Amino acid sequence: MKYQARLLSTGSWLCGCLVIMLMAANPVVPEASMFNGTGMWLALCVFTGLYILPMLGKLIKIDYGYYLLTGWLAINLLLFIVAGVPVVFSVGALGLRLLLGVTALLGLIDLMFWLPQALVPERPLQET
């Protein structure tokens, strides 16, 4: 069960990174595209750091990682829900809009499988 939780965490991280990149490439106003800009890379670094930090808790045997990651993934739901705004209102390329919508949907499905595991008493990311 611990490995399934790690796999789902990695899946939500990958979907989140893709959503950030696709939202930067497909803004509501095409002239405001910030793909490959400093803001996109900073957002990806912060996003990745917020996933790595709870995983470090396991390495140094601190129990905070499980709770941090559960809270972060719950907040991450908002990212996938907000990603629907450019899908609906964007005037950008249809392919980018569809890819963003599919990626956000995959991220939501991934989190819907992960969050019930967070509620089990065994704490799937920690060694017991």
Textual characterization of the structure:
With 128 residues, the chain is an all-alpha fold. The chain has one domain. Helices cover 75% and strands 0% of the residues. It is built from five helices and no strands. It is elongated, with a radius of gyration of 16 Å. 24% of the residues are buried.
Could you provide a short overview of the structure?
By secondary structure, the chain is mostly helical. Helix content is 75%, strand content 0%.
Supply the key terms.
single chain, about 130 residues, mainly alpha, 5 helices, about 75% helix, transmembrane, transmembrane helix, membrane
Percentage of residues assigned to helices: over 70%
**Rg, Å, rounded:** 16 Å
Structural class designation: mainly alpha
Number of domains: 1
Strand content: under 5%
Number of strands: 0
N-C termini distance: 12 Å
Q: Characterize the largest beta sheet: strand count, sense, and whether it forms a barrel.
A: none
Keywords: Membrane, Transmembrane, Transmembrane helix
